[in-house]
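Changelog note: in this version the structure field was regenerated for every chain. One regenerated record is shown below for reference.
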Amino acid sequence: MIKKACFFLSEELVGPGLFQYFSSRNLRRLPFDLDDTCCASISLRKNHPHIQLRDNVSHIIHNQNTDGLFYTWLGISDDKNDVDSVVNANVICYLGSCRETENSIAWLIGTILEGKETDSHYYYLDDMFLYYAISRVYFNGVTSFHKTKETIFNRIIERQCVDGFEDDLTIALAMSTLMNFGYDDECILKNLGEILISKQSEDGSWQRTALFLGLESFYGSEELTTAFCLESLARFKNIFDS
């Protein structure tokens, strides 16, 4: 599965390592964007020479506004572009902690601590994905995000206690976020995991849920939800069965 996924992404790579949302098999086209470019590049770090040589990094770091935050779209004028918090987190996950990402890191930390996350992203439909994206950056070595850890813990636990999690995808993202940050309350995590297992379909999948918003439509799939569910359950097993 991994080999096939890397082959597909390698076929979709353009130029020095740029990606757009729609695949080459789709007649629709969008400009290249940093979200797809950085997420795909993370997956191809060890599997494609352009990514191994970081050939696309110069294109990424030159796509910033005057405050040092990353724009979403490549080749779009500043007045028609946008700065999205989840996109910035995914850029940091690819580039790591460096001079070019320090302003973006500081902005994301402030966004969480000041409770401004809901107005900070345009494409992802739930703050939980921002929490997940930031926790993934932390898990991959950008330790300055430890400043957001307790705040994110509190918001996830409060949301679970007050409203509950309304779908499988949100549960999975919450579980992975907590574990990425080193949350060790096995009882709470086990409870979430048991809820996920109880909601698995007979064919092994979990129900589709919209994750992000495109130009005209909401996007999600059983495959996408299932991947996040399996990630959270596998992480739980590795932590607490070891």
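Spot check on this record: The two ends are 25 Å apart (CA to CA). The mean pLDDT is 95.
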